[in-house]
Amino acid sequence: MEQAMSTLSQSIKQLQRMSNDLTVKATNILSAIDAAEYLITHNASHVVKRETKGYTENLVGYFKQYTAWVKHSLSSEVAQCKPISNIVDSMEIVGCSFIVDSVNTFWFGLGGCCVLLIPSIIVSVKLAKYYRRMDTEDVFEETTYPWLVAL
């Protein structure tokens, strides 16, 4: 019984030591929650924009690093071999001069047609009243001009 009493008194003393810091810890947690709530309500858009900008800069950095590596590889490793260098140059000339330029011309022509389509629709609607079908021709009748029958 005495042993249970001493264990109980030790447990009570230990709980009292822990409970002294409990209010301070609860206050710290509540202040941290208030700070997080303030951050979310007032600075959330700024934080999201900053993180998004950092992420896009990171991705663009990867792309720039890759293109620099490709340029270095082509100029240092591939370009040393003259036949492969000539093949790469020929592919660039064929790709850019013949294929891409013709596609650009096609898209320019298609864009011009789309731009001219809108004014042509407006003009056609305005001129439609002059080209409507008529029930009868009002040019002339034979009874109105009898001298034309003799011709």
From TrEMBL:
Belongs to the prominin family. It is found in: Cell projection, Microvillus membrane. Its main location: membrane. The chain crosses the membrane at residues 106-125. GO terms for molecular function: cholesterol binding. Keywords: Glycoprotein, Membrane, Transmembrane, Transmembrane helix. It holds the Pfam family Prominin. The keyword Metal-binding does not apply. It comes from Notothenia coriiceps. It comes from the Eukaryota. Coiled coil: none annotated. One of its GO terms (cellular component) is prominosome. This is Prominin-1-A-like isoform X2. InterPro entries: Prominin. It is a multi-pass membrane protein. The keyword Flavoprotein does not apply.
